[in-house]
Design brief:
Shape of chain A: globular
Structural class of chain A: alpha+beta
CATH superfamily of chain B: Nucleic acid-binding proteins
Order of helices and strands of chain B: HEEEHEEH
Number of domains of chain B: 1
Number of helices of chain A: 7
CATH class of chain B: Mainly Beta
Helix content of chain A: 10-25%
CATH class of the largest domain in chain A: Mainly Beta
Strand content of chain A: 25-35%
Strand content of chain B: 25-35%
Largest sheet of chain B: 5 strands, mixed, barrel
Largest interface: A-B, 54 and 45 residues
CATH architecture of the largest domain in chain A: Beta Barrel
CATH topology of the largest domain in chain A: Lipocalin
Helix content of chain B: 10-25%
Number of domains of chain A: 2
Largest sheet of chain A: 9 strands, antiparallel
CATH topology of chain B: OB fold (Dihydrolipoamide Acetyltransferase, E2P)
Number of strands of chain B: 5
Radius of gyration of chain A: 24 Å
Oligomer: heterodimer
């Protein structure tokens, strides 16, 4: 009887506790927010999971890895961390949760995971990747995520623990209280371990952060060692040149916004729901915002500028000279995306790669296939302090009718608008509109106001097309064979100049 | 330059001028390919695959090419992004070592056996970066 009462008490206590959890409209626990594991958890998994059950040959490999860890750890080269290692970094991450998918975005190198909860199988099953394919489902209040299709290149931690491409990970995420996620990962890899092993940690809610920030591991490294050179004309701190023609801030696009039809997807409250997989009909914007013919390897561009009406960007003359100069072969090295740095805004939307949108009432998250995320905050009304500068800027947005209106600023000025080098500076502010006109199409506009290189604001327009597909992974930095070639071309040019 | 590496400027013009090619994002570069490769050095030859890197935003095919005198050169040939191939239904198993490929493209400015390829044809006539049931692949080549 006593045992029965005790059991009843435990059940009741747990029920009460579970009822206090934040819950989504679907009734599932709502894990949305910014989280971080206890510091130092990812350094050596054997401190968390005990001695790992290595097969003999694999143990020898692990010991060799440990001895060479400072040079061999892929994360020391800013390469993708893999899963579950990415969950254990000493950097915060954010969960954005809908019924169809969870976006897990990481401050570290702007890596993300997209956990689909609607289909049990990846469309690209068997295609290997660093982060694995993640499929989630709910077992009561527990989110269970199966991750597989790994390559064998990532490590499990900083101590040389490793895995093969046969690894499969089953993660369990359970909200214990509003501020704690109990996380368990079961790792199975018959090529490396004699049996499955289990890792248990907790994620704590990170309070008081206005948003998830950027830690651009590789960019910071290359700035520090000089491989990526500062340009004082455009980076944060640059001022409007005294010789500039005056900036006409009032000149603006007057084209009315398009209308939404009845097929547009909507949230429960009637707001348009842009969630899903999209590919931009970019018109070659990555090879020129203005129309160009292209050359033997670079395709042409049809021109996407709708204001000014002539389709030309309203450059200050010196900035136009810089833009033309950037097309020289020896400047190819200077395009930040050649270094695999984040493309920025609006370029992330017209690089020739798809993206997936995860939208909640609080935010709209863009997961770009080229391994960078961007978040539009729908709740915050004030931008970050002026001195906080980001590659993707700081975006806050709201709906006006059926159009998402976004204001982005706090740029660092380090990006290019495309690979032919359309110019931007840290002073740019960008007003974007996303108008879903039908189930399958969003009309996107961006008005860029940048008083350093331009004489007036200008506006581009692009259709974003919804498609039935899934994201793949782009491990740009990990497989970047081009940068050395580009550097050779530049160095050869500089050597020839020095001789003159 | 050996006989198998012929100037094909006219073929290049046809390739680039083809309908839909101009705006479809053929190069999909994350920088200007023209910075690395030389318009004056078109290449066209047949060889055997020694390795393929299914990487992004660009893949690499390594090809053993035998010239008229029997000398074998291993060419490193840059392709569009491998994700475009995957979306077209290609998998690693489809291009094992030894697969014979005919390629057309342009050589690197530095004169090494490195090239950027635009057209890749298997011996059965299938083309690697063309023909797809997936509309997404078209934009992403």
């Amino acid at each position: 009887m006593l045992r029965y009462l005790l059991g009843l008490f435990v059940v009741l206590a747990c029920t009460v506790q579970a009822q206090n959890l934040p819950r989504a409209a679907s009734g599932k626990p709502d894990m949305q927010g910014i989280w971080q594991v206890t510091a130092g958890s990812g350094a050596d998994l054997e401190r968390l999971a005990g001695t790992l059950p290595y097969l003999p040959a694999a143990l020898a490999q692990k010991q060799a890895n440990y001895s060479a860890r400072s040079s061999k750890d892929p994360m020391n080269r800013c390469w993708l961390p893999g899963t579950p290692r990415v969950m254990l970094l000493d950097y915060p991450f954010e969960i954005t949760q809908t019924d169809a998918a969870l976006a897990v975005t990481f401050q570290w190198q702007q890596v993300y995971r997209l956990i689909y909860t609607t289909a049990s199988k990846s469309r690209y099953e068997g295609v290997e990747s660093w982060m694995g394919h993640s499929r989630g489902h709910w077992e009561g209040d527990v989110l269970v995520v199966e991750v597989k299709d790994f390559n064998d290149r990532s490590w499990l931690d900083a101590a040389g623990n490793f895995h093969s491409g046969a690894m499969q990970v089953v993660e369990r995420y359970q909200l214990r209280d509003a501020d704690t996620i109990v996380y368990q990962a079961t790792v199975t890899d018959a090529k490396v371990f004699s049996k499955p092993w289990v890792l248990n940690v907790e994620f704590k809610r990170q309070k008081g952060q206005p948003r998830l920030m950027e830690y651009q591991c590789q960019a910071e490294k290359e700035e520090a060692n000089g491989a990526f050179e500062r340009d004082d004309r455009f980076w944060y701190g640059a001022k409007i040149p005294a010789t500039n023609e005056p900036f006409d801030a009032k000149a603006s696009n007057t084209k009315p916004l398009p209308k939404s039809d009845a097929t547009v997807h909507r949230m429960a409250d009637g707001t348009p729901d842009m969630s899903g997989y999209f590919l931009t009909d970019a018109g070659g914007a990555n090879y020129g915002l203005e129309g160009t013919k292209g050359n033997f390897l670079t395709p042409g561009a049809k021109g996407v500028v709708i204001d000014p009406a002539d389709g030309n960007l309203p450059y200050q003359q010196w900035a136009r000279t810089e833009r033309v100069n950037r097309e020289q072969p020896y400047r190819g090295y200077d395009d930040p995306t050649a270094h695999c740095f984040v493309a920025g805004v609006p370029r992330s939307l017209y690089v020739p790669s798809p993206f997936h949108i995860v939208q909640t009432k609080d935010r709209v998250v863009f997961l770009h296939e080229r391994m960078a995320w961007r978040e539009i905050d729908l709740k915050r009304r004030e931008h970050l302090p002026d001195a906080t500068r980001l590659w993707q800027g700081d975006s806050i947005g709201h709906f006006e009718g059926d159009t998402l209106v976004v204001d982005t600023r706090n740029f660092n000025g380090k990006a290019w608008h495309n690979e032919v080098g359309d110019v931007l500076s840290h002073m740019q502010t960008i007003q974007e509109t996303f108008t879903p006109v039908s189930e399958g199409k969003i009309i996107y506009r961006a008005t860029v106001s940048d008083p350093i290189p331009y004489k007036r604001p200008w506006t581009i327009e692009l259709p974003l097309n919804r498609m039935d597909d899934e994201l793949l992974e782009v491990a740009c930095l990990e497989d970047n064979n081009d940068l050395q070639h580009l550097k050779d071309v530049r160095d050869e040019y500089r050597a020839a100049q020095a001789k003159k | 330059m050996n006989n198998r590496i012929k100037s094909l400027l006219s073929a290049a013009a046809v390739l680039l001028g083809g309908t839909g090619c101009l705006f479809s994002g053929t190069a999909s570069a994350h920088h200007s390919f023209s910075a690395e490769y030389d318009a004056e050095k078109p290449i066209s030859f047949t060889g055997k695959v020694t390795e393929m890197k299914w990487s992004n935003p660009h893949g690499w095919i390594f090809l053993d090419v035998t010239d008229d005198k029997g000398k074998v050169t291993n060419w490193a040939l840059e392709t569009s992004q491998s994700n475009a191939l995957i979306r077209r239904g290609w998998r690693k198993e489809d291009l094992p070592v030894g697969t014979v490929l005919k390629i057309e493209g342009w050589q690197a400015r530095n004169g090494t056996p490195t090239g950027n390829i635009r057209a890749v044809t298997l011996s059965d006539g299938r083309r690697l970066f063309a023909g797809t049931s997936n509309q997404n692949a078209q934009e992403e080549k």
